[in-house]
Amino acid sequence: MSLNMTSAALRRPMPVRDLHALRTSRAMAELELRRQQAIMRLARQLPSTLDVHAMFSLFAGIAGDAFPFDGLRFMRAAGDPPFAWGEEAPHHAEYSLRLNDEGLGEMVLMRDRPFAEYELHVFEDLLAYLLYPLRNGLLYQDTLLMASIDGLTGVGNRKSFDESIQRELARVERYGGELSLLILDMDGFKSVNDTHGHVVGDALLRHFAAVIKATARTSDMVFRFGGDEFAVLMPETGHDGAARLVQRLREAMANAPMVHGDLHVEPRSSMGLAHWRADTDVTALVEQADAALYADKRERRASMSAA
């Protein structure tokens, strides 16, 4: 009798509510196991790199194994280019990442369907293992950046120029494409510096660099080449595109005088362009731009003398 009752009980369908609870319980148990596995992987692998992009790719891949999402986006500060992994999706969970009151940036988790509360708890647990490696990576990134920036003008320094032009030449030699180089110097800078002093001279250099940066495209790279000489490296840009930048720079300088107290100085510049060819190395490209620069300088002096 007892056996028959048990048999009948086993054949009776499980109520939907109980079945849902069982499935939820199993899903939660599986998620907890994946959470623990992800934490162990993050703790072991994240400290192995200081490259922030590599770090986020690693974090996104491990977190994605714990529970499904479509995309991840991180931005250190407003206006900075974001790191993006995966795809944009309509449902967002946003986090302001902080460590010991230090703001590290903003992260957005994205999916095409809403997140369950327990999934967000898991993600937040995983985020805790990102914070210290991220802070270290950002500090390292800042150190590298400072080593490549000209302290006076805020554009790339000569070391950064040398590394960038080697990299871009290697790229076009391997994959093809175009590359142009513009070298500029300020006409009459020595006279301004000698007459008004180094404080005004430094202010003029900063102003000159700011005009170049504001006029160049986001894909262009601006460097202080040395003294009052600057360089603009233009990937995927041929003669026509580079010539348009030269024209925009001349117009910008004519319309943007430096004001220092009662002194107004219009930055004037000689410019020389060079374009990559299959037989062009770094030295040849720089020499071509230099030759064009001095030809432009002679022409401008002759024009001023005739006037």
What does this structure look like?
The protein has 307 residues and is of the alpha+beta class. The chain is 55% helix and 20% strand. The protein contains ten helices and ten strands. It has helices spanning 2-11, 16-45, 52-66, 117-128, 131-148, 158-175, 189-196, 198-215, 239-254, 282-306; strands spanning 71-75, 83-86, 91-99, 102-111, 179-186, 221-226, 229-235, 258-260, 263-265, 269-275. The strands form three sheets. Strands 2-1-4-3 form a four-stranded antiparallel sheet, covered by helices on one side. The protein has a four-stranded antiparallel sheet with strand order 6-7-5-10, sandwiched between helices. Helix 2 runs antiparallel to helix 3, helix 2 packs parallel to helix 4 and helix 8 (198-215) crosses helix 9. The longest helix has 30 residues, at 16-45. The radius of gyration is 30 Å and the shape is elongated. The chain starts with a helix and ends with a helix. The model is unreliable at 1-12 (pLDDT under 50).
